[in-house]
Structure formats: structure tokens, C-alpha cells
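1st attempt posting a full record on here, be nice pls
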Amino acid sequence: MSFELGMMLLALFGLAGMGLPIAYAILCAALLYLELSGRGVGLAGKLLMDGLYQSFVLLAVPLFIVAANIMNAGSIADRLLKFCIALVGRFKGGMGHVNVVASLIFSGMSGSAVADAAGIGKIIIEMMTKDGRFGRGYAAAITAASATIGPIIPPSIPMVLYALVSNTSIGYLFFAGIVPGLLMGVVLMAMNVYISHKRGYATEAPVPLRDMPRTTARAFPALMMPVILLSGIYLGYTTPTEAAAVAALYALVVAAFIYRELTWRSLYAVFADAARSSASVGIVIGGALILNYIVSDQKIPEMVARAMVGLDVSPLVFLLMVNLIILALGCLLDASTIILVIIPLFIPTCRELGIDLVHFGVVAVVNCMIGLITPPYGILLFVINAVTGIPLAEIIKEIWAFLVALVLALLAMILFPDMVLFLPRLLGYQG
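the predicted structure (as C-alpha cells):
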């Protein structure tokens, strides 16, 4: 290890340990490396300009954020929740199922786990805990766990970031996330059934079948957004980035002209919040671009690849090892940092071992999402705590059962790659 790299790592962990946000810690440590190695901050500017302005794919991130914020405005969430209650509320542990299905639907709008948790989290937790039907810790835990589905079913901001570092097709990544996202929903609902029977949680009053068409019609415009998004990509009318623009425009039309609930004041709030969120992601990306240059300059990916190949491990063993590492890092780092900084280290080895990069990307993103609910630093636990006031200890106590269910789903995705690659291959993927 060179002196410059050692000082950079010392600065990175020291600043992060003192509580500086990880994005700023990465930027400061990377700039220190460039200064010590005699390259200067001018190179940092060039790397940022090249990375941010030559990557057309990055435009999808703020556009998906705008679309999600618009769809979360007004009564759209309320309409979708009523549709979910009509669909699955009648089964044992009804509101728990509603929670998961609502996340499956909202995942087709936001692409962000935090947006899903903050967007409908408080509403649905209040519905679950009304009249003591569910414990508040349980309601918060299943809300946090179901929010992890958000970035798996398209659109997905983490998959856009993975496509950036791996040069993989966003379209195929989006389609590859559909079955794993549904699997995550199924295992969470299965765990909800088990716990609901064990604790005697209530079901909701069945919605009469004659009311279903009206309930569906009220939610139909919002339900069509993921359909429009994916059909545009699949039929070749739009690139994924253009599809993000179409999604934002469609969300605007639905909220402003169909539901008539978007005012100029709320539209300003939507754009302001989207700008803040996009800037946060941009800072992480900027730091990662400089750090990735340093990692490449030090030839770390080649060293990792040689070490792994030298161990003569099978692709399956390598995947299991990498996922254990990501799972451990997920307890400490946010998903964007892992995807932009850590995962690129393993991509050369994946190519050497013949591991499909679409499969690897989906598995890695799922793993990162599980990290969002892994104690002690799972960010979704803190988000739910912040929006509801439910003590963190109560949420952590209830999260373990759902954590186990999601890890089992992740293991199934690793062991059975066809589960992930089925839809992309059906649509022409040759990997």
C-alpha cells in the first residue's frame, strides 16, 4: 500500500468516525490523495465534469425523484391504499399484506426505498396501529422491510447507479428486478401470515366485489405508471433515461389534470425537494467518481481479481463471499456508497469467473437494500423512527423475522440465477 493511499484511508475512516457524512468524507479523503500524489484538485474537477456530464444515464436519477414526489402528492397514496385494502385486506394479517402490496405498487413509481418509507410509511402505520390491531413496533418493522422492495422493482435509482459503474444495460437490469421484487413481497407476506396467526392479528372487513371496479378505477391512472415506463423501454420507443422523463411528465399529468390535486405551491415544493435529493445523490456520485479513479490508479481491482482467481474459487463461492461482505458493509454504509465505491472492485473478477453482470447487479442491489434495515445503522429504521416517533428499540426488536425472510430470498436469487435472468432472456438478453 502506498503512503498516499494509506493517508487517504486514514482520513476517510477518521472523518466518517467523527460523524462527517460519508459523501463529504469520501470527497475530502480523495482530494487529500490527489494533493499528496502531486495531481492537484484540477484533476478532481476534470473527473467530476467527465463523470457527471458525459453520463446520460445519470439524468434518470432526478427525473425518477421528481416523478415519485409528484405521485406522492395529494390523495394518490390514499387511493392506492384503498385499492390494496380491497385486494388483500380480507386475508389473515390483512393490513400487513396491504403494507407489502402498497410497497410493491409504490416501487413502480419512486425507485427509492427511503421515498417509499417516508411517503406512505406514516399513513399505513397509523392505519395498522389504529384500535390496537397491530403492535406499533411490528407495524414499523414490516413497513421498513417492505420499503426495501422499492429499488428492486423498476424504476430503480440504485440500478441506474450500478449500470453507471458496470456498463450494463439499464433496461435488462430493470426487467431482471421484477421477479426478485415479487419474491421479496411473497416472503414478507408469508412471514406476516405466520406472525399474524401466532399473535392473533385481525383481518380487515372484506370489500364487496361490486365496489372493486370503482376502487380500481380510482387508482388506475397511478397503477399505469410502471406499465408505461416498462413498455416504452421494451418496445424501443424510449431509452431508460427518456422513460424517466416520460414517467415524470405522466406523473405531472395524472396529479394536475386527472386527480386535480397539484397546485403551483405544491409543485414548487415537489421540485425543491427533488433538487435537494438529487444534490445529495450527486455529491455521493462525485466523491465516488474521484475515489474510483484512485482505486483504478492503484490497480486495486486487478489485485482483487488476481487474488480471487488465485484462490481458485467457484463462481458460486465467490458470489456468497461477496454478498457476505456487502451484507456486513450494509450495516455501516449507505447503498449508494456501496454501489459506487465497493461493488466496482468485484466487477473484474465477475468477468473473469463468467458471472453474469445483470445477475450480479440485481443480487448486489437486493443485498444493499437488506442493509437498509440491518441494525444498528439501517437507515430505514431511522427514517421510520423519525416520521412516526416509534422508539428505535421497538422497531429493531420486530425487524429480525423480516430480515431473515429477506436473506432467504437473497440466497434463493444467488443459488438460482434463472430466477433473476428469466425475464431479460425472454426479452432478448443474451447473457
